[in-house]
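Cross-check.
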Amino acid sequence: MTVNITNRQDVEAVIREQVVSTIFQDAPKQSVFMGLARKLPNMTSKQTRIRVLDFLPTAYWVNGDTGMKQTTRQAWDDVYLTAGELAVIAPIPEAVLDDAEFDIMGEIIPRVNEAIGQRVDSAIIFGANRPAEWQNDIITLARQAGNNVADTQNKDLYDKLLGEGGVFNKVEEDGYMVNGCLASLGMRAKLRGIRAADGSLIFKSDMQGPTQYALDGAPMYFPTNGSYDKSVAQMVAGDFKQAVYAIRQDITVKILDQGVIQDPITKEIVYNLAQQDMIALRVVFRMGWALPNPATRIDENRVGCPFAYLEPLTPHTAQTVTFTVKDGSSGDAKPVKGARLDVNGAKLVTDESGTAVFYLRDGRYPVKATKKGYRSVTDDIYVTGAAVTKDIVLVSTETSNAPHTKE
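Predicted model, tokenized:
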């Protein structure tokens, strides 16, 4: 006779649908960044391109009734969101599933969401374990824009956050309004302790509400998923809607009952699923993000940043990377002033000596140098525990018709 059973494939189908739905719904809640940033439509491929304004048009006064009207141009730049992959495997002994008096999957899924949120936040904000295909993290971008505020002893905390030259003012000087702040839990005690000259608590009534902290009207969040690195920044503030992210659609969820699980470093076998009567829930999550930073009337060169941060007492250090841009159209190789350098999303303009200085962690960074009237140059820079100097030669479009893409 025919025997019908609920096999593992049937169970996997149900669990797969449940877990995928939960990740889509709960990952933004577990990730503070994904809850604050602007979500774009789900990605349909590994890379998504968005266009941002790169060059603003200019209007001119017309002299007299017969004056000549002048022309202007407007240009756009490509910004790419590339999907980085997060994966997690949760091994479960079958005996535990058989004997459990509660929903094992219901206990695991929130932890999977928490792990995804923690990795997303720490990579985007602090650059921890950042996928190589992603642009620089928010702290690095803010640092390049000069939006880091030192925790000096001669200024009180109120001035460092809200005063002239403070964290909020840094964001505002670049043409943005702060709509969110992130800080470690330890910052709450510092904020509660700020007092006026008469000893009264400044933030007693207007900062701490029944459900949420707010600073100058901007909500504050204190991540508890382990993502916040207080050794890098005491507080991060900015216009989070300027940051965008998209989730790749091909999330895969699979229940494994065969094979082995190895330690990724030592390659030693940790679990043998078949031999140890175990199953493993494997979840793969892919997403990309970007900080487009379009040109504005306040920041036409796109060298500003909609984020700023308060440094710890001992500032986090990075390696100094000095670029010198020279004119290769003639034999004297004069320095090029006003060339824009884009180092994986961080932008600076060269000074009169053709120099721009970046502060970068160890790693490989794509570099693009551009200036009107010159052919753009793309290259890579490698930072390995020491200061780096790099010369870039730009060639005038009038002196060379050959493509020039790399030095």
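The CA atoms of residues 125 and 138 lie 5 Å apart. The radius of gyration is 26 Å. Passed to J.P. for a second look.
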